[in-house]
Specification:
single chain, 572 residues, mainly alpha, 78% helix, globular
Length: 572
Amino acid sequence: MAEFGALSLVPPLLAIGLAIVTRRPMLSLFLGIWSGAAIYTESLGIGQTFDWIVAAIIVDDGFHVQILVFTLLLGSGVALIWRLGGALAVREWATDHLESQRTVGMTTWILGVAMFFDDYANTAIVGSTMREISDELRISREKLAYIVDSTAAPVATLGISSWVAFQLSLISDAYESMGVAEEAPTAFATFVRSIPYNTYALLAIVMVGIIVYTGRDYGEMLDAEHRSWTTGNVNREDAQPLQKVEEELGAPIDQRPMLRIFFAPVVVLIAVTLASAFWTGYQSWATVQAEAGQPTSIGAAVEGDGIEALVSATVQVLVDIVGAGDFATALTWGSFAMVVSAILLGLAYGLFDIGEAVDTVLDGFGIMLTAVTILVLAWTISSVADTLGTGDYVAGLAQGYLSAELLPVLILFVAAFVAFTMGSSWATMGLVTPIAVQVAYEFGTGFELVPVAVGAVFSGAIFGDHSSPISDTTVLSATFSGADLIDHVRTQLPYAATVFVVVVGCYLLNGYLGVPAIIFLPLGVIALVGLVVGLSRVDADRKDLEPVATRRAADIDRRGREGDGELSEGAE
């Protein structure tokens, strides 16, 4: 048990509860941190509170500092595109070429799936690229943030990414600490076998596709979509979006709106980020290879007998290179290149002078200050939970209730709760994976349960991350989509919970009836379709709305309100 026991749950739960109820995330997070400092020091804890905040900024050899710099630079890039009329050009193009919310939503979803290499880059690129287009089609910012957030982390756990490299290291370290590394399957083989049991990630991606394709919504998202269609307000009237471009930057330059002003800097951002990530990864990988006396060229390192062995070796090398990549540096370089390219375009077309360019860059820093503040506080509350031993306490409680049949379900719940309270998938995976691997090995006859346990850890970690307002990816998704953070959490939670319930059902089918993944995954998809249709119908009837927010539904809502008004006038 952790030293602080149940008290370790107080800071994160206090912060999360206050944030959801009051819709004031900064105050809530600060109070959560302060309560943790008071528990830790057994005093007022003010000094410890600010020590933790400073430490959260400079931790991990400046990784968080680089993310803050990247966020501020991206704000400048967005500000430059707006000021130069790029957003206006996109709006005009969307009006002429895009006819439906489904088209925009599916485009956003596909783009999110394609950006599998890093969740931070995914949220930044997809959110910033699609925001103006989705606004033109009256897609609520809450819906856009959901599509971005519920695609970014799940795809990163399944493709060639920094996440997969981290997961492989956790599996390998677990085998070594248990002393079974020589007889165990490779970490890569275990990871591949765990993919079907990373059921939340797989079904969360599918869920986004279902929601976008059918256009059906329920919960607070249904209200948000009807509001957006009916009034044109993509955010709630009293919302506090983490990025207020139009309000803070004023009217754009509208003399020559050009699509290249929008897309060229975004393409530069993507290209430089990808190239930098691969280059830094290759440099690190080559250094390790040289120290081990192994080939330092990719071609020489890929070897194997037969096609299957060559493919496996190639994928392993690519995973190693991508995993060794410095994505924080790559994102910083990419966002800087985006800013430079936007300035050069503005100067080349005579849209502004260098003084106005610098002023716009500084204005861009300003629109990100709220997001940066919340991000720092979210990192801090995560480190508070780690210091107080929140994850250890929860994991220790669950160990007494384990059985082979319920193993994946219990691991799922533990990982979900730890991620929810700590606000970090990576911290959760690092904490829970070694325990889950050992328990699965002891319960099974060998290693057959280990991939199931590993998949359950990843599923729970991502669900908890999606549900938590103190998660950094949740904050960044809301930021780059221009949504209110708490509105994003409240509208996304019913969808995440729906997927979570289906995942629990899949795990129970597997544990008690031995239903394999090739069967329970399609059953899960069918269940999601049925739940979306049913829940949207029930919630729409309850609210006297249509389950699909369309222009026709908006007209019906409007006529209904006008009719109510006429009746009221007649009654008077």
